[in-house]
Amino acid sequence: MRYLTVKVFCISALCGTFNIKMPKNINVLRGSCVTIPCSFDVESRFENNLDDSCKAYWNDSPSFNSHNAKLKPTKDMTGDLKKKDCTTTFINTNLLQRSKYYIRLECNNALKYRFSQTDDPPSPTLTPSTLEVKEGTSVSLTCSAPAPCWSHPPALTWTPNLGQSQETLQENQDKTKVKTSVISFTASHLHHGNKICCTAAYRKQDGSPDVTAETSLTPDISYSSKDVQISVSPSAPISENQKVTLTCSSNAQPAVENYTWCRADGGALIGTGHTLNITVSTINSNFFCNATNTVGFKASINFQIVMSRSYYLRYSHFFNNKTILHFIVHVLGLILQIHLKTSQFQSVPLVQYQRTAM
């Protein structure tokens, strides 16, 4: 990106008595308009010379007057010179074909512009330029883009769309203007590592297509463990007294520093580390793991090792030893009752009838 550099040069003998204020740098897009802020002061003895006859003229060389000036802005393109406002608007910057321009006031005040053009629009600026926060933090990002053409400031858009934005057109101390867009959102682990981009679209007044420029940042969002899960190897079939390896995995930023393993029935600590080697037991087959990083920790859901040796083992998480004992006693009681009833039925004597001859 090349810039417009403002310097003051003497064109008349009265140069030392004038003071002019202009921005040192102005971004200009070829084919668009540009407004150059400008104000000046004169000695008190020249105040009466600031009347309707004062005009501002632009040229690409320092030796010129009102007759041979290359650019002659009209009244509606120039500020009120009587109020010491020499702000000038060029509707089509294609008219500016040189890198240096001078402005001349008929009140004999002049300055030199070092002026450069580019086909590329000025890039917007993101504030802050980096984003490193914890999940849940309220974040505000500001996108700022120069508005060289005050009547057609750039349109600012955010990608992805993180919510509603607030836009303003602000004036800097040097009288240049800037378009700003502020977006606020709550930092989430879903934002981590995903680029946030601000795009400035500039409209051209010469009928050519709009041009865009963008600036982006990649958020670094720290968060505690997510999706803590346990897997077992080998997966199946698993029998009692078999040795297996349990693995705890999770998604965290920064990475998990410590894994701990506990039994589900009481939470007793039984091991640490990413993996746990155990021998399968019908008594202790429920586990969970904790994943901890610098932000916090999260526990997995209880993990049940399913064994295939028998129906009882496969579904052991539905029963305990006392329930099974009650079940067996109940079944035996039913069998005994059925046996007693059958025995009573078989002991009933049969009534015999004897037929007597008449």
UniProtKB/TrEMBL annotation:
InterPro entries reported in the protein's UniProt record: Ig-like_dom, Ig-like_dom_sf, Ig-like_fold, Ig_sub
Source organism superkingdom: Eukaryota
Domain spans labelled Ig-like: 122-218, 219-302
Any single Pfam family the record assigns to this protein: Ig_2
Name of the protein this chain belongs to: Ig-like domain-containing protein
